[in-house]
Amino acid sequence: MSALPRAHELGLIGCHVCGLVCRDNQVEDPACPRCGSALHRRKPQSCARTWALLIAAFLFYIPANVLPIMRTASLGDVDDNTILSGVVELWVKGSPDLAIIVFTASIMVPMMKFLVMTTLLLSAHRGSNWARRQRAMLYRLVEFIGYWSMLDVFVVALLTALVQFGFFSEVAPLPGVVYFGLTVILTMLASQSFDPRLIWDCQDEDD
Predict the structure, then answer these.
(1) How many domains does the structure of the chain reveal?
(2) Are residues 57 and 67 in the same domain?
(3) Mean pLDDT split into 10-residue runs, the chain, 207 residues
(4) I need a surface site. Which of 72, 177, 198, 206 has the fewest CB within 10 A?
(5) Is residue 61, in this structure, part of any structural domain at all?
């Protein structure tokens, strides 16, 4: 089956900001007529910027897991917890639902985002035609879960509120929260800087 025509073959270009499809007038530095944003057939230096942000996020993720993320005190017992030890602490203190939320948001989601974005970058760099539709779906998944990546920080705030209800006598955030927050922000920026159209740039003519 012959390949479908590409946007540039039809003289079209899409706005990254508002999604408006515009006519490509082949002028230098074209702007979107709806929102005024600069139009690009592909995001400039997409892979390089995404790699830089993703590597920085991974470097911040290391101290986010090594340094304590919160301090809990109950019945005179004071503990400074990392993410993993905090999960165990929540489970032991009778909050398995919060423990599952923290583990999912702080361990599973970031590692999945690192894995997916690395796969997308490597395949785009190689011009791979492997599983393009599935890779596009993975990119949309990363974008979707990015909105929920700050759950761990919200959980620390929630635990602070639980002090009023007697679950803990004291809960305080520690430096690990800052590094985790930076990790979340950088992974979100990395997913936004990646141009998913790179997935489709090297499709075969007979695909």
Answers:
(1) 2
(2) yes
(3) 59 72 67 75 82 95 87 69 80 80 83 91 82 84 73 60 54 79 88 82 50
(4) 206
(5) yes
